[in-house]
């Protein structure tokens, strides 16, 4: 195996401490959380108390000033263990960065320390029943009133952490006639009159991850809750585009870690399982299949590690991040399918980690921009036109 050079000793020490946290606070409960359809709220508080949320935020806002690689370690560990109910990545490395990068000082002071402590759970609501890939087609509106506040109307769907969320970054049109240029981001808090949560959606996988519908019926959002203040009105789409490379890379990071875990489980399983008087691992088909998968995962890991270096240097471009997202999530699904096959009927039983990982993997090709949209982005970067 090619030695990884991405992490230093501090990152690896952090990996150990986060593993211990998962063993104590997540592993004993995750199966029950899958059955109830959401993680207990307490795990957010426990993570906050232990400094495992929003680590890359500056200390002044409750973070640890940690470089992004600590978050990469955390994502890898969650994916490796198959704890797909844990939405820390979206909270810490998608929601918080929007506020850090675009928020006013008042917004940073109000929200970031509470996200870092786990007092607030964060979500981001872009997708709507009729607008997923086509984000410019968002129908939710936030119309500025005479007193400067915004009247928010619309509905969102498929929102990760939506049911637990205390703070939701909502994508809405402040100027419905202006297309992408009329899009803004609003900070909507739990309890604002007119903001209701719909049902938690039942999913193929990621069963402990709460994924909800959100409804906004004449929600009066104070002027202070427009992300970045009035100067950022109409600039929401630009913010979304700027944040995409890191968001997409996060999917690739978890894809590679999950795929590696699946190979490791399968190596072990096939060495233990005996059929026709020999282990499944002794069949040439098994050995070649696993050799091929390990080769591809190694290639993916080297590519993703390079992308991680680039993101730390602020140099990861959108097309390359899209390549990582599409290729690694496709690979993850292929690895899960072939590893499940090598488990035989046991691979179809929920009690086996490969079964859960197979179900969890499928959405990675869909969210964060579908893999078809990734190919649109890549081909556009090649000067091939398209959307
Ligand atoms: C578990 C889960 C969690 C999610 N979490 C969030 C979240 O936290 N926040 C959030 O805002 N959203 C979230 N989403 C939504 C997700 O981002 C969207 O589902 C995704 O972007 C696709 O949109 P859609 O479902 O409307 O599919 P559609 O846009 O209707 O796509 C249907 C099909 O058409 C294809 N297609 C669309 N446009 C093109 C094109 N131009 N060229 C070729 N093919 C095309 C797609 O690739 C797809 O195969 C989540 C979704 C899931 C399932």
UniProtKB/TrEMBL annotation:
<dbReference type="InterPro" id="IPR046373">
    <property type="entry name" value="Acyl-CoA_Oxase/DH_mid-dom_sf"/>
</dbReference>
<feature type="domain" description="Acyl-CoA oxidase/dehydrogenase middle">
    <location>
        <begin position="123"/>
        <end position="219"/>
    </location>
</feature>
<keyword id="KW-0285">Flavoprotein</keyword>
<comment type="similarity">
    <text>Belongs to the acyl-CoA dehydrogenase family.</text>
</comment>
<feature type="domain" description="Acyl-CoA dehydrogenase/oxidase N-terminal">
    <location>
        <begin position="9"/>
        <end position="119"/>
    </location>
</feature>
<dbReference type="Pfam" id="PF02771">
    <property type="entry name" value="Acyl-CoA_dh_N"/>
</dbReference>
<feature type="domain" description="Acyl-CoA dehydrogenase/oxidase C-terminal">
    <location>
        <begin position="234"/>
        <end position="382"/>
    </location>
</feature>
<keyword id="KW-0560">Oxidoreductase</keyword>
<dbReference type="InterPro" id="IPR036250">
    <property type="entry name" value="AcylCo_DH-like_C"/>
</dbReference>
<dbReference type="InterPro" id="IPR006091">
    <property type="entry name" value="Acyl-CoA_Oxase/DH_mid-dom"/>
</dbReference>
<dbReference type="Pfam" id="PF00441">
    <property type="entry name" value="Acyl-CoA_dh_1"/>
</dbReference>
<protein>
    <submittedName>
        <fullName>Acyl-CoA dehydrogenase</fullName>
        <ecNumber>1.3.8.7</ecNumber>
    </submittedName>
</protein>
<dbReference type="InterPro" id="IPR009100">
    <property type="entry name" value="AcylCoA_DH/oxidase_NM_dom_sf"/>
</dbReference>
<dbReference type="InterPro" id="IPR037069">
    <property type="entry name" value="AcylCoA_DH/ox_N_sf"/>
</dbReference>
<dbReference type="Pfam" id="PF02770">
    <property type="entry name" value="Acyl-CoA_dh_M"/>
</dbReference>
<dbReference type="GO" id="GO:0070991">
    <property type="term" value="F:medium-chain fatty acyl-CoA dehydrogenase activity"/>
</dbReference>
<dbReference type="InterPro" id="IPR006089">
    <property type="entry name" value="Acyl-CoA_DH_CS"/>
</dbReference>
<dbReference type="InterPro" id="IPR013786">
    <property type="entry name" value="AcylCoA_DH/ox_N"/>
</dbReference>
<keyword id="KW-0274">FAD</keyword>
<dbReference type="InterPro" id="IPR009075">
    <property type="entry name" value="AcylCo_DH/oxidase_C"/>
</dbReference>
